[in-house]
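ok trying this again, last paste got cut off
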Amino acid sequence: MNTRTLLAAGVIAGPLFVATVAAQLLTRDGFDITHQPMSLLSVGDQGWIQITNFVVAGVLACVFAGGLKRSLQTGRGTTWAPRFTVLFGIGLIAGGVFPPDAALGYPIGTPDEIPADFTWHGTLHAFAPPLAFTSLVVVSLILAGRFKNERQPGWSFFSAASGVVSLTLSAWPDPDSSSWRLAISVLVGFAWFTALALQRLHRFGHRVVAGAVDHRLRG
């Protein structure tokens, strides 16, 4: 794939994921995002929609990692930002491949509690969201340092703030509010991820144009 296509995958991933979740919130009877984590959309007869959503977003994130590496070229974050972006994608894919167990009253008829025992796939799923979004936080902090070195204070602050806010929301020790905090954390994380993809795509386009102009002048 060419670099522009790889970067475009990152532009698509977040809006597609969020829009698919939003559509399900409007159509899935018994689901309450303020009480149940969005992962539970993977359970039930229509669970395949969210499973596919996780996997597609994860694949797109991994594809974007290749474009990110090419667009960064040299300097801080060139190696580790793309690697942690791949881990972000792997975490999302794992969240789909290993669905959670029914819990917290969803699907309808399920006891409104966390199961005492987990299935093997429910146990593996429990590790997927922390892997995905901790990796994304790491990417944001790595690139915050890079943007600072490049004298882009706006992007440096945006990246650092997004990482800190996402981490704080997801790690805050209050189980009663965990579902909506995680939902906001996902929104913040994907908003930054999409903005980053757009920024890299824009800068890559300028670099290509500048290279073409330089080549013509030299020719």
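PB: full thing came through this time. Residues 209-215 have pLDDT under 50 and may be disordered.
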